[in-house]
Amino acid sequence: MGRIRLRPGRQRSLLAGRPWVYRNEIGEVEGDPATGDVIVVADARGRYVATAFYHRTSMLAARVLSRREGEEVGTDFFRRRLLAAWALRSRFLDDVSACRVVFAEADGLPGLIVDRFDRVLVVQTLTAGMDARLDMVLDTLTAMTGITDVYERNDGPVRRLEGLPERRGPLRGHPPDRVDVREGAVRLTVDLARGQKTGHFLDQRDNRLAFGRAVRRLLVEPALDGAAVPPPPPRDPGGPAAAAPPGACAGPPAVPPPPARAVRVLDAFCNTGGFGLHALAAGAGEVWFVDSSEAAVEAALEHAERNGFGGRAVGRVGNAFDELRSLEAEPRSWDAIVLDPPAFARGRAQLDGAFRGYKDLNLRAMRLLAPGGLLCTCSCSQPVTWEMFSAMLAEAAADTGRSMRVLERRGAPADHPGLLGAEETQYLQCHLLQAVD
Ligand code: SAH
How much is the pLDDT for 360? Predict the structure, then answer.
């Protein structure tokens, strides 16, 4: 087995939990390992640190597989890891009919992504080591889940960094191009061939459900039923209210029910419509779906139609930044706005630009919100920390002069776990805010 020795001190972040080694951290390579080989990573003094996949040219030179010295990393090892991944989902999630079965490093399987959509598995192998073991992985996945139809979505640009060709299409069995899944009350069609990434962004599943819940409970239900709004407590007879004009009736004043008005929702960066569809299912009167991809907006409208919400959905193909800007000129406000943009920063060098981009979006959304309105704002930029994002939100709120409160701060669900010691793997943030007035 080949071995790499790290430069002095470079084992520290690895020991703290980071699951990869950068090329510039390597002091010496012993035994001429090939790309995709399993190697040992040692510190400068030769002490064992981890067992990893090796890559001869990628900037990420080694990806950790095991931290147990002497553990054999062969077929049995990969089987055990795959079974553990499936066990986590089966035990932890209420519904495994649409979930991420394997999430790469977080499942100790660097580069392997497997999503389940009903009776189809969608697979990505983003490292040379995993790509070389794809057949064995598929045998185990099929035996474990009982699913025999497998679709490959190895058409992302990350494969190029590992020197792997881009491929897409049926891999095993006879997977259809489109498959239906349920997400709470919403039925979605996942386009395995043309959808973005694996066809559907499963990492936002629980956040979409939470958003739908908030729209229903905070915006829709009080408007439909005035009784849901509790009357104010009786006034203190000795207080200023005692100075009521003579003849005014005693007791608390009747609370007029709030006017029944249609709740308006803006789903920006909607992709196939997930957030907005849950708002429609919750009873929203009107949802605008905005995305720069025409195919995405079409899919969102098709989803609205098929779920019986057709008359309440409006599609807008365009740049969400421009759309938000032009909406500011309109007099009407929005009861809820979703911002779920793609990653604005991939590395630290892009952080400043990302901060400005997020702030611009959030500031505009805050300006558009009605009093009591909800803002569901997300980031999937790995280098953007919770602290940075919260600071950006506070600045945006201050600049608009609005008082915003935090109802929920949510991350990724348990089928997309992150690793401690590797902040980048906890990439997803979803903040649910409300305009106080
Ligand atoms: N909210 C979606 C996922 C959004 S992914 C869901 O729950 O499924 C990000 C989306 O942003 C993609 O669909 C992409 O097409 C879109 N996008 C990227 N840049 C954009 C821009 N400048 N304006 C509008 N949409 C954009």
Answer: 98
Give the integer Cα–Cα distance in Å for 395 and 372: 19
Tokens (6 digits) for 296: 């995405």
**C-alpha 345 to ligand 1 mean position (Å):** 15
Q: Is the dihedral of CA 298, 300, 302, 308 positive or negative?
A: negative
CA distances from 75 to 66, 131, 192, 206 (A): 14, 14, 29, 34
Coil, strand or helix: which one is 3? strand
Of all protein residues, whose CA lies closest to atom 22 belonging to ligand 1? 319
Q: What is the pTM of this model?
A: 0.91
Q: Which is the catalytic residue, given 99, 376, 378, 380?
A: 380
Q: How many CB atoms lie within 10 A of CB 414?
A: 14
Per DSSP, 229 falls in state: S
Task: Round to the nearest angstrom and report the end-to-end CA distance of the chain.
Answer: 65
Which residue's structure tokens are 């996942």? 190
| CA–CA separation, 207 and 189 (whole Å) | 19
- C-beta 270 within 6 A of ligand 1: yes
Instruction: Count CB neighbours of 322 within 10 A.
Output: 11
The closest residue, in CA terms, to atom 21 on ligand 1 is 319
CA-nearest of 74, 79, 32, 28 to 51 is 74
Question: Known catalytic residue: 380?
Answer: yes
Rg (CA), the chain: 26
- Residue 274 in contact with ligand 1 by CB distance below 6 A: yes
Distance CA 183, CA 187 (A): 6
Mean pLDDT by 10 residues, the chain (437 residues): 97 97 98 97 98 96 98 97 98 97 98 98 97 97 97 93 94 97 97 95 98 96 61 56 47 51 94 98 97 98 97 97 96 96 95 98 98 98 96 98 98 97 94 96
Contact 110, 65 (CB under 8 A): yes
| pLDDT value of residue 242 | 43
For residue 188 the two structure tokens come to 């979605």
How would DSSP label each residue in 154-189? Answer: E-STHHHHTTPPPEEEEEES---SEEEEEETTEEEE
Residue 156, pLDDT score: 87
Cβ-contact 188, 303 below 8 angstroms: yes
DSSP state of 349: G
Within 182-273, residue ranges assigned H as helices are 205-214, 221-224
* Ligand 1 center–CA 2 separation, angstroms: 43
Cα(268) to centroid(ligand 1), Å? 7
